[in-house]
Write a structure and sequence with these properties.
The chain has 353 residues and is α/β, with parallel strands linked by helices. The protein has 13 helices and twelve strands.
């Protein structure tokens, strides 16, 4: 997906029929009250003024809650407000996130009328037992029906899934990814489960009924899901919740996060790990012990290659005695690299003869 500016409008719990065990949308979104039409306009104007590049596509996104579950008249008012910015050429489209059981022909016709291009479904899991355990209030059949209808109406389909739900295993999550791929979404978001204050999951955690997965488990599973979706040519557009003043480290005073695999750069950790795997695989393709190598990459990939707190370079040195030198090359496409061997173990033996 090409780079674009997103103007986020949060409508927490508007249209949401129930409380999932893991969910407190007002905490997750950082929006503690429902938004008004005037506030929507102010938010859009504020973001438009902050964008530095007028040539990059701009999109209004209604997040939080279940957009298509909102009262139809209010839903139309929100869409009309956003649509004015499409008509005057200031934004290119609208995207919404919603529940699969709140998709039907009437709702899709309304979204189509006002320039919505992308619909993301909060799926979380395709295992009906896990969905029931989390009190989602819908089934996988609802997901299949809604996904097909969305695609039939010509919208870009997106799916959101979670890692570490109660009683969910890594195999369950890989099965969810496979099930979703069959429904042909163009985009996917992956969210590791965090224990949020004032949720049923917090009560279960404090009772010892629920144990969140570790940060390492969350990174490894998310990475495996990224590999799978990449093979299916499905774009992963986000990994992990957006860091905010209240979605932050559990030890921070005002944090709403009680426990779980939180990291303020979780998606970066996953990307770093993917790069580590790629580099290591290439090094191992050489039929010799590599001691020093030069890696040419796009400048925008440097941070991922080096790793958080230089962890990738440290692991290569500590585990494989490999010193990696990084060279920037803006002619190399992002995600690609060139590896040049500078010194091998055999070279060292020749020197010491």
């Amino acid at each position: 997906m090409s780079e674009r500016y997103i103007i986020p409008i949060f409508v927490p719990h508007l249209g949401c029929p129930n409380e999932c065990t893991f969910c407190n949308q007002r905490s997750i979104s950082g929006q503690m009250k429902n938004i008004t039409i005037e506030e929507v306009k102010e938010q859009i104007e504020k973001f438009l003024k902050s964008f530095k590049n007028d040539d990059i596509e701009k999109e209004i996104a209604f997040f939080g809650g279940s957009f298509t579950g909102i009262d139809m008249s209010l839903q139309e008012d929100l869409l009309k407000t956003a649509y004015e910015y499409i008509k005057n050429g200031k934004v290119s489209g609208i995207r919404v996130s919603t529940r699969p059981d709140y998709i039907d022909k009437e709702r899709l016709s309304l979204l189509k009328k006002y320039g919505v291009k992308v619909i993301e479904l909060g799926v979380q899991s395709t295992n009906d037992y896990i969905l029931k355990k989390c009190k989602r209030g819908h089934t996988f059949e609802d997901v299949k029906r809604a996904s097909k209808l969305i695609r039939r109406y010509g919208f870009t389909l997106g799916h959101q899934m979670m890692v570490g739900l109660p009683e969910s295993t890594r195999l369950d999550e890989l099965k969810t990814a496979k099930d979703l791929a069959k429904l042909k979404p163009k985009i996917v978001r992956i969210y590791p489960v965090l224990v949020i204050k004032n949720t049923e999951l917090e009560k279960d955690f404090k009772k010892g009924v629920y144990q969140p997965i570790s940060l390492l488990q969350a990174v490894e599973t998310s990475k495996e899901l990224c590999y799978f979706f990449a093979k299916k040519k499905i774009k992963v557009i986000r990994i992990g919740l957006q860091n905010t003043d209240i979605i932050t480290k559990p030890e921070n005073l005002h944090s709403e996060v009680v426990a779980g695999p939180y990291h303020d750069a979780f998606g970066q950790l996953v990307e770093d790990s993917i790069w580590y795997d790629k580099i290591l695989k290439e090094v191992k393709n050489f039929n010799t012990k590599v001691m020093e190598a030069e890696l040419e990459v796009n400048p925008e990939d440097i941070n991922s290659v080096v790793g958080h707190k230089r962890e990738n370079l440290g692991k290569l040195k500590d585990t494989y005695d490999l010193k990696l030198k990084i060279k920037q090359n803006d002619k190399i496409k992002r995600g690609n690299f060139k590896l040049k061997i500078l010194k091998t173990y055999e070279d060292m033996l020749e020197i010491n003869k």
